[in-house]
Amino acid sequence: MNKIRKGDTVQVIAGNDRGKTGEVQRISPKDETVVVAGINLVKKHQKRTGNVRTQAGIITREGPLPLANVALVCKNCNKPTRIGFGAQGDRKSRKCKKCGQFID
Ligand SMILES: [Zn+2]
């Protein structure tokens, strides 16, 4: 069960973007990386490929961050927190270790 999921708000806890928050756009469990909106922006040189929808020139896009460098921001206490799991009715849910509230 993943601690961080697409659509979650996370705070960067290490690296150049430390302290910034954003919404999770994509997770790669295999690489253990996460792409967060507005975080770790990298400039890429995009070549025209013949696809008319491809934008040529320099584009800015989010680069992946190690999953270990982000912490989920709890909706209840609004702080970056570690995640535990607990039973909520008959399903297992994520739980904030700071305030003890379920996140899902
Ligand atoms: Zn909390």
Average per-residue pLDDT, rounded, comes to 91
From N to C, what is the helix and strand string?
Answer: EEEEEEEEEE
CATH fold naming of the domain at 9-73: SH3 type barrels
User: What about the largest sheet?
Assistant: 6 strands, antiparallel
Cα radius of gyration in angstroms: 17 Å
Seen as an oligomer or otherwise, the chain set is: single chain
Stretches where pLDDT is under 50 for at least 5 consecutive residues are none
Helix content: under 10%
Assign the structural class, choosing from mainly alpha, mainly beta, alpha/beta, alpha+beta, or little secondary structure: mainly beta
- List ligands, each type once: zinc ion
Q: Give the overall shape, derived from the CA principal axes.
A: elongated
Query: Number of helix segments?
Result: 0
**End-to-end C-alpha gap:** 13 Å
Q: What proportion strand?
A: over 45%
The CATH level-2 architecture of the domain at 9-73 is identified as Roll
Question: CATH class of the domain at 9-73, please?
Answer: Mainly Beta
Textual characterization of the structure:
This protein has a domain at 9-73: SH3 type barrels. It is mainly β. The protein has strands at 9-12, 21-28, 33-36, 41-46, 57-62, 65-66, 70-73, 80-81, 83-88, 91-96. A six-stranded antiparallel sheet has the order 6-3-2-1-7-8, with no helix packed on it. A two-stranded antiparallel sheet has the order 4-5. A two-stranded antiparallel sheet has the order 9-10. It is built from no helices and ten strands. Zinc ion is lined by residues 74, 76-77, 81, 96, 98-99, 101.
